Amino acid sequence: GADDPEFYSGTGASQSHITKIAxxxxxxxxxxxxxxxxxxxxxxxxxxxxxGGTVDTTFVVGQGAGGQIYDILVRKDNNIVIGGQFQTYNGxxxxxxxLNPDGSLNKNMATVSVNNITSILETPDSQVVIGGEFMRVxxxxxxxxxxxxxxxxxxxxxxPQVSYSNPNPVRxxxxxxxxxxxxGAYESLGL
Length: 191
Fold this sequence. Notes:
single chain; 191 residues; mainly beta
């Protein structure tokens, strides 16, 4: 398609790259990746744009993520979940983060410690499923896929064991009936 003359994002992300874009129901656009500024606006790897492309200055993330964001999920309640290859958010040791709609850290959620989350989805019953290149979640041996209750507590009834030897991470998606679908170069899957 042709460029939209109504949309102008300026100079964009500084000295790095964008890995994920998510559009909210109100038309605002969440942009994630690995950058410190977006259009000269300080931003720790995530920024929200207005529908016309300007930075939404009401979305305040502070220092933001201390690394790269690979996926952004806008939940049904308009909270935002981000994951990637980072271990801190606003200086706090977390790696799966839920943000309030204004960009602030939602501290009502359990802290999740896991590195290299490549995909996130929300199930119809508001659980969160993550996939990626990880073998531990909150100190537990959990390989490449994990499901959390709506408040980020590990679901002990969903512990498939995914095994692979090459660096192609597991990605997760949901089909229409809510079943979780996996993709990636994995060698075995134990349910």
